[in-house]
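hi support,

uploading two proteins for the ticket. first:
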Amino acid sequence: MNTMNRREWALVITLTLAAVLMICAVPPPEIGGAPLPEVRAGTAAIVTPTLQVPLPPTPIPPTAPPTATRLPPTATPTIAATATPSATPTAPPSPTVTPYPFDTRPDLARYMYIDQRSQHIYLFEYGELLRAIPCSTGKPDDNSYTPAASGKVGVYVTTFFSFGTHQDDAWYLYHSVGGIYIHGLPYTYDEAGAKVYQDRDALGVRPTSHGCIRIAPEDAVWLREWNPADIPFTVSEPYLELWR
């Protein structure tokens, strides 16, 4: 290899400097919109440009739809009706009509009322009806009707005989022409010894007795078990004109 002389070295250095100056004079190209880094003169290092590629937009996660808040139902206000004054005065309320045309004596623990108009015995406990028993009082004749009275129920008589008939389960009430009793229907005996009761069809319908108050034999048994001894009683007027 031939050794280079000074002239040849000077030419190489001059060409090298010219090349460097030309590179520095040309503006660097932009890649992807970003300029390449500047190369300073006199440096031999070659910088490799970094490409800046735009990244795709980050997806935004979908948001959950807002949850509807359930409000409690609102009560509908009640509008009170305003009374319109009437030009005419209002009639007072009618008095309460009781089902009985007599006092049921709610002040008494037990009470008996014999109504000769309806031909019934009404038994009350503190004014409340316990039992209504169909009966038949004295015929509307001068010597056999049942007079009005009040008092307390007297003694009990198992059986007595009067006017050719027998009567069972009798309770003494008061004295009129004779003794006035509540008792079972009068009866006689047939040939077989059985009781034959009289005037059952008159109970609760019409008066047929000689003054006593007749009731059905089964009601007489019930009354005996209820035991009306010493309870207050009232016998209404006989309503003679009605039954005559």
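and the second one:
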Amino acid sequence: MRRIEGWVTTQQAAELSGYTVVYVRRLIKRGRVEAIKTGRDWLINHSSLLAYKAKMDTLGTQKHNPYRDDLDAEGRGGEQDAE
């Protein structure tokens, strides 16, 4: 596959982030990282992947907290479920 500047394959994204290929595809499906489909393959925006990784690293164990403020702002937090 020809390399496109700023975009990486799912395999390359997994190697860069330390995530598995399956998890990278899950991030794409959920819209957590910017990606485009080219034929049967996905290309992930390199800076989008690194930004997501940095955010998760910064959150640490709080990334598992369903009541985080950033999730509430997106309409995905646990407070929405309690209503």
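thanks. also noticed: The beta strands are 7-9, 35-38, 41-45.
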